[in-house]
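I am still learning, so can you show me any protein sequence you like together with the matching structure tokens, please?
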Amino acid sequence: MSLSRRAFLLGASSSALAAALPAPAFSAMSIGIDLSKGPDLMAFAVGTPGEYDWQAIFARTPEEAFREWACDRDWGDEPAVFDEEYVQRVEAWDGLRRVAPANWFDAGLGHCCERCGYETHPDFGGKIVAGEVVCEDCLTIVDRAACDPDDVVEDLANRIADEGGAEVRTWCEEHGCWDAVAPLWPRAVAMAEADA
């Protein structure tokens, strides 16, 4: 078997490049993870604290995730220095092929509303509706009836107590939400009567 000049040069350059690359620095102990028992790549949320520029990044270490995130940013002439406040380990995302907006909410993290694009968070009224992240302003009564029926019952009861049952039902029918609230209606009426 003869070795071509091209194969020889490719092999030599690959060996030289491999020798020049630094060995990866594993700091799994700093975040309490045994890499031998977990996935090859771990999931991290990486971004600026207090901002909505976070990204889901799969890496072997927090430092590696931070470097990958920082490469997309313009840090000027200075290289980005690792800061653990920019990296959060999210074990629930390990093994996912794609981190969907609802996965961010499931992990207790914020995301942008998929309807209006505004920043939202599960702690501030954002909800997952049929797999979609929706901010409080975009939630309809139909959405709320599906994801938080007890809250809708309470709202309906208050309106029934203030405006009367017939008026509230007419409003629901005119606004196309009666089918969604009809199953909740008896509870709302009972609550309004109990509070009267």
In short: The domain at 101-139 is CATH 3.30.60 (Wheat Germ Agglutinin (Isolectin 2); domain 1). The radius of gyration is 27 Å. Strands lie at 42-46, 55-59, 87-89, 111-112, 119-120, 127-129, 132-134.
